[in-house]
């Protein structure tokens, strides 16, 4: 009987210990479905045990109080579309440091304080269109240095303070065009030289401060 009692006791201890561990250290999970976050409170309530979104993720500044994305730091992928729009106070995307891939389209639109993409340093691929528009204070593409694959086009439209494209040098595969339009201070396209050397892609430019062709960029006539 003693060996049997010991076995029962040992099994109970192991079971309790495992339960304690899983309660104290929640296991990583994936959010199943679309997720809409419209306030800082909603972001703060998001459990940092989620490592991915199996659906679309939307961050929209409805209340105007979003300042911190760090509760989302463990998200490694979004399988659908990812939209960040109409925020008032986010200067960078440092809370998204875990993000590696977006399976759908990535829209970064009308974020009034956004100055750079710092925080997206681990983002390697966007399978849909990557759309960057009307971010009035965006000055640089720094933060996108890990980006290697675009499954559709990159469209950069009417970002009033954007002056260069430093940060896009690592792109190796693009299925669509690289399009830049209406960026009134954009005069330096030299970051695209390495992209044009490693992949066949058209660079389309219009109504920027400087509008070189793909061949001009390749030949070194890439800034003004």
From TrEMBL:
Secreted is among the record's keywords: yes
Receptor L-domain domain segment(s): 53-141
Subcellular location: Secreted, Cell wall
GO CC annotation: cell envelope
UniProt-listed Pfam families: Recep_L_domain
Key words, A-Z: Cell wall, Glycoprotein, Secreted, Signal
Superkingdom, natural source: Bacteria
InterPro entries, A to Z: CWI-Assembly_Regulator (IPR051648), Rcpt_L-dom (IPR000494), Rcpt_L-dom_sf (IPR036941)
Protein name: Receptor L-domain domain-containing protein
Species classification: Bacteria, Pseudomonadati, Bacteroidota, Cytophagia, Cytophagales
